[in-house]
Structure to design on (537 residues):
């Protein structure tokens, strides 16, 4: 576990660091965190708890994820680190030509066209089958109960639900969108904080997924319903696309940062961006967090990493450069040498040849899980399969219709993916899972959390509480209001276009659990920017 200089907070906090020994679940919604902890107390392990929490989040935080989204996980168990990529591919009928024939010059955000094969149910089943102790049907029961009997809408959830309903009411006009309004609104209005909300169709779908180990979703009745709705409304996804899906077990990729190994899922995910930034930053020395020089170097490194990621990251076997090339000492030094006193307008380099929820879970046996799932852009495509609560993701929006782009749309291909779980180890032993959800903020949040922990010696809660920045494009950077004014002024003098955000909602929502190897004590932090909670045992 990282050594903290102090357990006192340098930043205002809504909560103190959480400490326990028998189990811990951290996520953005208290009901979901408690559901995971209840599974631990029933005899499940951290993997079971993570699945239960993830399924519960599809019910109690539908503004960020759903049954029809994708998922990734990093699992520490039995002395090894395992990675799971459960992102879905483009339907076989989804091609550049077919999309353009609909009149699109770029991939649309909403409707059936950007829908890719959902991977979340497959992730739950794969994790349960390989590492779980309890049957999947039992692990999904808390989520089923909340969907069937209802739950009170929490404050942050109500805010984003209301915003989505207002936006969707203005732009989603076709018949295919009516099931979304039937499922997630009452007379066109989203539920307000404190109101009880039920999702009976969602409960039925979860029960069927649990009883069939997700077979119904990919090869059975639920797959038939997705196919039927897609055909009726001119979509591209078919049952054959669902049948061909398999979650992919992968070896996590990592970079050593000041004696710690930081791990991410390999592409098509954007975890590589966080690792490239850390590979650049490890060549600098940081004495203090709150200096313009510290902010400047972090921002510049992130620009250089992100501009490469946006150009090159796609399905791994279709990338023109290897992950090893991007993370080489040689390439890190080349990119580091571009950073000077002034803000850069970043350009991609040439390496040497060769809407999301996040949760962490840990148990007394030593198992630890970093898990993330998303529908993308909040509710996703705006498409819900009638009577099922299955809100389909719009991940295909990230494909390019430019046939020369690395992430060009191809049938059966996986697109560049924003959601990324992180994990930290030291000397071959687990420190623990971490993550910061939120679109393109995610790798930026990963870098800031890791530096807050290792460079600036902040405990998990303080590492999450600290004010954040976010590179947008070019020289434009958004910062939270907690960033000191003199730093904002100095960054502006260096050529950064600094914008102080009024709302912190766009700066990501993270969770951390670290384990002390000496005594097994767990220390956790949860996001102050949402309804986050750490459930402990």
């Amino acid at each position: 576990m990282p050594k903290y200089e102090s357990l006192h907070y340098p930043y205002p906090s809504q909560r103190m660091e959480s400490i326990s020994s028998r189990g811990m679940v951290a996520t953005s919604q208290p009901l979901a965190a408690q559901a995971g902890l209840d599974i631990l107390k029933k005899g499940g392990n951290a993997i079971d708890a993570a699945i239960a929490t993830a399924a519960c989040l599809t019910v109690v935080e539908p503004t960020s994820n759903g049954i029809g989204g994708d998922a990734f996980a990093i699992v520490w168990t039995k002395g090894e680190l395992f990675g799971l990529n459960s992102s879905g591919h483009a339907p076989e009928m989804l091609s550049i030509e077919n999309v353009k024939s609909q009149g699109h010059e770029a991939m649309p955000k909403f409707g059936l066209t950007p829908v890719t094969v959902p991977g979340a149910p497959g992730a739950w089943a794969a994790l349960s089958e390989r590492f779980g102790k309890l049957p999947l049907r039992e692990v999904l029961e808390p989520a089923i109960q909340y969907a069937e009997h209802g739950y009170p809408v929490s404050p942050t959830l109500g805010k984003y639900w209301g915003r989505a309903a207002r936006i969707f009411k203005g732009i989603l006009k076709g018949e295919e969108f009516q099931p979304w309004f039937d499922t997630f609104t009452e007379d066109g209005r989203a539920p307000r904080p404190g109101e009880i909300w039920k999702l009976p169709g969602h409960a039925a779908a979860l029960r069927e997924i649990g009883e069939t180990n997700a077979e119904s979703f990919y090869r059975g009745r639920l797959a038939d319903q997705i196919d039927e709705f897609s055909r009726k409304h001119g979509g591209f996804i078919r049952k054959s696309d669902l049948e061909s899906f398999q979650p992919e077990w992968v070896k996590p990729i990592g970079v050593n940062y000041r004696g710690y190994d930081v791990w991410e899922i390999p592409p098509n995910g954007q975890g590589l961006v966080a690792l490239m930034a850390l590979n650049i930053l490890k060549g600098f020395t940081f004495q203090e967090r709150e200096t313009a020089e510290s902010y400047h170097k972090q921002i510049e490194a992130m620009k250089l990493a992100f501009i490469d990621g946006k150009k090159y990251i796609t399905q791994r076997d279709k990338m023109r450069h290897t992950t090893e090339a991007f993370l080489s000492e040689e390439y890190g030094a080349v990119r580091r040498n571009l950073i000077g006193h002034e803000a850069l307008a970043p350009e991609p380099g040439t390496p040497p040849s060769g809407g999301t929820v996040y949760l962490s879970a840990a148990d007394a046996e030593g198992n630890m899980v970093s898990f993330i799932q998303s529908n993308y852009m909040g509710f996703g495509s705006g498409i819900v399969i009638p009577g099922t609560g299955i809100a389909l993701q719009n991940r295909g929006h990230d494909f390019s219709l430019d046939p020369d782009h690395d992430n060009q749309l191809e049938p059966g291909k996986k697109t560049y993916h924003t959601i990324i779980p992180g994990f930290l180890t030291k000397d071959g032993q687990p420190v623990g899972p971490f993550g910061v959800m939120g679109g393109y903020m995610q790798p930026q949040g990963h870098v800031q959390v890791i530096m807050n922990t290792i460079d600036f010696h902040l405990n998990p809660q303080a590492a999450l509480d600290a004010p954040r920045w976010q590179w947008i494009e070019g020289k434009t950077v958004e910062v939270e209001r907690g960033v000191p004014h003199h730093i904002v002024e100095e960054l502006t003098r260096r050529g950064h276009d600094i914008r102080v955000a009024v709302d912190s909602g766009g700066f990501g929502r993270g969770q951390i659990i670290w384990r002390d190897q000496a005594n097994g004590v767990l220390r956790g932090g949860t996001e102050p920017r949402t309804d986050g909670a750490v459930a402990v045992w």
